[in-house]
Amino acid sequence: MARNPNLNELGEFLKERRAEINPGDLGLPANKQPRRVRGLRREEVAHLAAVSTDYYTRLEQGRVHPSGRVLGALAGVLRLSEDQRAHLFRLAGTDALRRPHRRPRQKARPELLRLLDDLGTTPALVLGRRTDILAWNTQAAALLTDFGEIPVKHRNYVRLLFTDPAMRTLYQDWENIARTAVAQLRTEAARTPADPRLNTLVGELSTRDEHFRIWWAGHVVAGLCVRAKQLNHPVVGPLTLDWTTLISATDPDQHLVTWSAEPGSPADDALRLLASWSATSPGPPPSQADTAA
């Protein structure tokens, strides 16, 4: 089969884009030795995109046909604009690798919103695609963070785990929680490898956090699960809560997530105290967010 002539142009396009990236902007350590090339080195791009240096070198040489996952990862690492990203996929040369049509804006289902309001002292939120936070109740805001103060485009659970310092102190076993979240995100990425928002999220977190970059490169996958989580809450202290995820029958891309405790347990008493505290403290009402797809 003849090689796609656009692959050479794709390689040149990647070279130019990596030359435009300032390594310091991606959190890469400064090197006392002067750089022989502008921008990022090949091995740095390969590492951030979770591919081998040899593979990326052959890609720039026009010798390999990249997958949609690789193209999406490179688009995130190189911080491509929407137009640049579309051009990258066009150069790959097949319909399967081009950016899909943007899906409709995702909103929390009405029945899930009603459940949020009816859960009383139970913290709960609705997660959509890519763990975007679509809605939450007052108790979830009191337990975790004031989601209403977070810009809609940044209202994502995995993103908060890695970018909000308070989340690292809230979870006693933050590393295990975050590692599992990355594995679950990797599972979703396998279903929608060309999702531009997911690839942008992965690219951003890969450049901002070494833990995320290493765990993402490990290709570990995980599904949703029920498990206990230990928290250190700044108001009510230590908590052991059960994290439960329910999938919407009308939209499997939406999950109702709850934190609950055994009735009569110290954690249950703490949740009731937290609910009482949040009811008498200034804070956000039960809310929903229009999260872009």
Automatic annotation (TrEMBL):
Entry-linked SMART domains: HTH_XRE
InterPro entries according to UniProt: Cro/C1-type_HTH, Lambda_DNA-bd_dom_sf, MLTR_LBD
Entries under PROSITE patterns matching the protein: HTH_CROC1
CDD domains, per database record: HTH_XRE
Classification via Pfam families: HTH_31 (PF13560), MLTR_LBD (PF17765)
Domain HTH cro/C1-type: 35-85
Gene Ontology MF terms: DNA binding
UniProt name for this protein: Transcriptional regulator
